[in-house]
User: Which sequence fits this backbone?
């Protein structure tokens, strides 16, 4: 998945060894899996040469990284027929999140 961080979420990620992010759309801090139980245990943290991009290698607990219930957030691909989906759905987001507004439509 791709997520955004601020100083607070990066500090907590380093200290707690659980991936934490800053939601730009909801303007709030969140720990991955706090609602779904699908947490990301931090195994390694790397930074790019400019120190403005972070790569976090995680062990995905619960089987899904995506709030849509898919194993990966990158389950859509562009092919000669347009946008196609080829991922694995691990859980039903309606059961986990209820009727909360979710992002990710084109």
Assistant:
């Amino acid at each position: 998945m791709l997520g955004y961080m601020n100083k607070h979420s990066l500090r907590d990620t380093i200290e707690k060894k659980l991936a934490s992010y800053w939601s730009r759309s909801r303007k709030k801090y969140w720990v991955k899996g706090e609602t779904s139980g699908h947490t990301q245990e931090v195994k390694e943290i790397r930074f790019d040469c400019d120190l403005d991009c972070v790569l976090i290698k995680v062990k995905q607990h619960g089987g899904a990284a995506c709030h849509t219930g898919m194993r990966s957030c990158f389950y859509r691909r562009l092919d000669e027929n347009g946008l196609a989906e080829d991922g694995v759905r691990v859980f039903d987001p309606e059961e986990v999140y209820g009727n909360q507004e979710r992002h990710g439509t084109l």
User: Anything to note?
Assistant: DSSP finds two helices and six strands in the chain. Strands lie at 20-23, 28-31, 40-47, 54-60, 76-79, 82-85.
